[in-house]
Design a protein that fits this description.
Blueprint lengths: L5 E3 L2 E3 L3 E3 L8 H10 L3 E7 L14 E5 L5 E6 L8 H14 L4 E6 L5 H13 L4 E5 L13 H4 L2 H14 L4 E4 L8 H9 L4 E4 L3 E3 L2 E3 L4 E3 L9 E4 L4 H13 L8 E4 L5 H9 L4 E4 L1 H6 L3 H16 L27 E5 L9 H8 L5 E3 L5 E3 L9 H5 L6 E5 L27 H7 L1
Parallel strand pairs: 3-4, 3-16, 4-7, 7-8, 8-9, 9-10, 10-15, 15-16
Antiparallel strand pairs: 1-2, 5-6, 6-14, 11-14, 12-13, 17-20, 18-19
The structure holds flavin mononucleotide and iron/sulfur cluster (SF4) (2 copies).
Keywords: Iron, Iron-sulfur, Metal-binding, Oxidoreductase
Subunit structure: Heterotetramer of 2 PreA and 2 PreT subunits.
GO molecular function, one term: dihydropyrimidine dehydrogenase (NAD+) activity
């Protein structure tokens, strides 16, 4: 059976599934139950400085985006870091770590961007025997207005500076949690590495307003007639997180920097995708909040079964496997030609493919009077939209033209050779190079 054990920057856990810093990890009672359910590790809900705990709103904190079946696709929150006293959290962390030595326990920290503030909290965290710290440079609301969270994560110089303080005053692994609310994720990741970070984790939540109450004319969740932007997460953010993880895994300046992948992980497959794009483990928040702690059972069972099927013996064998296949657009093979094919036996004649193709400008699907839908190869540009909108899985597939076949749309014979934009005759830069 596949070995699910994980070693993330020297932090060992029985599996690569950690709970992300959030309400599920806000107290001892929860974390103990999470460990009993099988989670490999937790990142404790973010700790703040000593003093009066932060104050949360007392109205609704969350908003959601749903699929047609009311399955939760995206969650938005306006919650802050832990609102429990620092001392209480530290005592609980120490007790839990002592009772679960084989699980990873990470302290997430967000204190003002001043050396004294970090110097004060780090020894106290070290006393809990936590396996490492995660610097929360990500929260996009509430704390960022006070110069913390994403306000730090958006300035690479600050990231490097704070990371350096942490490496100076703390002797266990330092993970820097990145905000996605930035144009180029490689810059903060590079700054974290320059500051001496052992790893980065991403993504934290994305600036968002989920919806507007049109009677109140106010964003939701609405607090006494007003709303503010919050942080978006859940399955809807996974594509953004996957792309950012892959960028850090590919970039020269950050290649090899260990990554903890976060954002919409709900199933074992999501986790495997993050691992394949360069994450060394994954963290989960929304899925645990939506379905409960036991979701980890399915994740672990599913990942293990898939690894057995594929012959992967350890998690590390999956890490980064797909990275060499992530490329820039200009290197995609322009001589790879496909056409849509409709399986008439599977088709339920709903007509969605027809409407989409017709009105998206290709007019490549015909509809007969008795509602038989067929692809017109002379028009099909192989965009994949019909596959995307068809309600029947695998009813439409994209079939590759073999070398020697003629594309009836362009009249060109498929060469079977690899030919990309860098050498294409229409590319002015290619012409220049040839001259
Ligand atoms: C209600 C809520 C509270 C959160 N609080 C924190 C926090 O205190 N510290 C932190 O680093 N991230 C916090 N996060 C962000 C999560 O740790 C995680 O980065 C994000 O939700 C993306 O993962 P997901 O799609 O699995 O939810 C919070 C998320 C939610 C939904
Ligand atoms: S692949 Fe695109 S162009 Fe071709 S039939 Fe489908 S929707 Fe139309
Ligand atoms: S969308 Fe799919 S099921 Fe509906 S008509 Fe087209 S091929 Fe048939």
């Amino acid at each position: 059976m596949a070995d699910l054990s994980s070693d993330f920057v020297g932090i060992k856990s029985p599996n690569p599934f950690w709970l992300a810093s959030a309400p599920p990890t806000d107290k001892e009672y929860n974390v103990r139950r999470a460990f009993e359910a099988g989670w490999g590790g937790v990142v404790w809900k973010t700790l703040g400085s000593e003093g009066p705990p932060v104050v949360n709103v007392n109205g609704p904190r969350y908003g959601a985006i749903y699929g047609a079946d009311r399955r939760l696709l995206g969650l938005n929150n306006i919650e802050l870091i832990t609102d429990r006293p620092l001392e209480t959290n530290l005592e609980e962390m120490a007790r839990v770590k002592a009772d679960y030595p084989d699980r990873a326990l990470i302290a997430s920290i967000m204190v003002p961007c001043e050396e004294e503030a970090w110097k004060a909290i780090l020894p106290r965290v070290a006393e809990t025997n936590a396996d490492g710290i995660e610097l929360n440079f990500g929260c996009p609301h509430g704390m960022s207005e006070r110069g913390m969270g994403s306000a730090v994560g958006q300035v690479p110089e600050y990231i490097a500076m704070v990371t350096r303080w942490c490496k100076q005053y703390y002797d266990r692994p330092v993970i820097v949690k990145l905000t996605p609310n930035i144009t180029d994720i490689r810059k903060p990741a590079e700054a974290a590495r320059n500051g001496g970070a052992d790893a980065v984790s991403l993504i934290n939540t994305i600036n968002s307003i989920t919806s507007v109450d049109l009677d109140l004319m106010a964003p939701q969740p609405t607090i006494d007639g007003k709303g503010s932007h919050g942080g978006y997460c859940g399955p809807a953010v996974k594509p953004i997180a996957l792309s950012m993880v892959s960028e850090i895994a590919r970039a020269e300046a950050t290649r090899g920097l260990p990554i903890s992948g976060i954002g919409g992980v709900t199933t074992w497959r999501d986790a495997a995708e993050f691992l394949s794009l360069g994450a060394h483990n994954v963290q989960v928040c929304t899925a645990a909040m939506t379905y409960g702690f036991r979701i980890v059972e399915e994740m672990a069972r599913g990942l293990s079964a898939w690894m057995d099927e594929k012959g992967y013996r350890s998690v590390s064998e999956i890490v980064g496997r797909a990275v060499p296949n992530v490329t820039d657009w200009q290197y995609l093979n322009l001589d790879y030609v496909t056409k849509a094919r409709i399986d008439q036996d599977a088709c339920i004649q709903c007509g969605r493919c027809y409407a989409a193709c017709e009105d998206t400008s290709h007019q490549a699907i015909s509809m007969s009077p008795d509602r038989v839908f067929e692809v017109i190869d002379e028009e099909c540009v192989a965009c994949n939209l019909c596959v995307d909108v068809c309600p029947v899985e695998n009813c439409i597939s994209m079939v590759k033209l073999e070398a020697g076949e003629t594309d009836p749309r362009t009249g060109r014979v498929v060469s079977g050779e690899y030919a990309n934009w860098t050498t294409h005759p229409n590319n002015p830069m290619a012409v220049k190079a040839a001259e």
